Amino acid sequence: EVQLVESGGGLVQPGGSLRLSCAASGFTFSSFWMSWVRQVPGRGLEWVANIKQDGSEKYYVDSVKGRFTISRDNAKNSLYLQMNSLRAEDTAVYYCGRDLVYGGNCFRDYWGQGTLVTVSS
Amino acid sequence: DIQMTQSPSSVSASVGDRVTITCRASQGISSWLAWYQQKPGKAPKLLIYAASSLQSGVPSRFSGSGSETDFTLTISSLQPEDFATYYCQQANSFPRTFGQGTKVEIK
């Protein structure tokens, strides 16, 4: 059974940093693209970042470029999101996800349960 | 960036109704579109990928169609467990973008 378990969320002051982790199990982690998607409570979904199987390609939404870094450790079956210079508008539930590769592109087929990040003084 | 626009933003329907949700891309995305269902307090769930491929385990009353800029999610006979919010997402290019969501409510 595929499982994705996020951790690391919490309350942080504006300008602060936080590192989210996602522990993966039930599949060959190193064979899949992985991603982060966030959702402001009560609002819609926003894609944040993607990372290729070997970490050689990374993509970010413009609003987090230069502040957030996605990374992975295939030996530990873990995905990370390092978030620096946090802003109030980064407050959201952050979902880790596995991306299913299909025909040269990828679709998120499994989601974690999410971890809440609150940026407030 | 590719903009995704869903309509309607909400729909009221009864059990047994046929429900159709549309998603329009601001530029052609071939068939690189997914549909997700989200229930309150839960993570989204993949229903359809590549515009019309049904994800394993998803009931056959869900179907997707379309290509390039115009896409449709259809629920052929709405069931009580289908009341939720539905999102489309393009997977043609980065940044990935979602539609704003369509809430399916009980009439």
Entry summary:
The complex is a heterodimer of chains A (about 120) and B (about 110). With about 120 residues, chain A is mostly beta strands. Chain A has strands at about 5, 10, 20-25, 35-40, 45-50, 60, 70-75, 80-85, 90-100, 105-110, 115-120.
How do the helices and strands line up, and which of them pair or pack?
The complex is a heterodimer of chains A (121) and B (107).
Chain A: E1 3-7, E2 10-12, E3 18-25, E4 33-39, E5 45-51, E6 58-60, E7 68-73, E8 78-83, E9 92-102, E10 105-111, E11 115-119
Parallel strand pairs in A: 2-11
Antiparallel strand pairs in A: 1-3, 3-8, 4-5, 4-9, 5-6, 7-8, 9-10, 9-11
Chain B: E1 4-7, E2 10-13, E3 19-25, E4 33-38, E5 45-49, E6 53-54, E7 62-67, E8 70-75, E9 85-90, E10 97-98, E11 102-106
Parallel strand pairs in B: 2-11
Antiparallel strand pairs in B: 1-3, 3-8, 4-5, 4-9, 5-6, 7-8, 9-10, 9-11
Detailed description of the structure:
The complex is a heterodimer of chains A (121) and B (107). Chain A is mainly β. Chain A contains no helices and eleven strands. Chain A has strands at residues 3-7, 10-12, 18-25, 33-39, 45-51, 58-60, 68-73, 78-83, 92-102, 105-111, 115-119. In chain A, strands 2, 4, 5, 6, 9, 10 and 11 form a seven-stranded mixed sheet that branches. A four-stranded antiparallel sheet of chain A has the order 1-3-8-7, with no helix packed on it. In chain A, β9 and β10 form a beta hairpin. Chain A is globular. Chain B is mostly beta strands. In chain B, strands 2, 4, 5, 6, 9, 10 and 11 form a seven-stranded mixed sheet that branches. Chain B has a four-stranded antiparallel sheet with strand order 1-3-8-7, with no helix packed on it. The radius of gyration of chain B is 13 Å and the shape is globular. The mean pLDDT of chain B is 97. Chain A binds chain B through residues 35, 44-47, 50, 59-62, 95, 100, 102-103, 105-114, and chain B through 1, 32, 34, 36, 38, 43-46, 49-50, 53, 55, 87, 89, 91-92, 94-101.
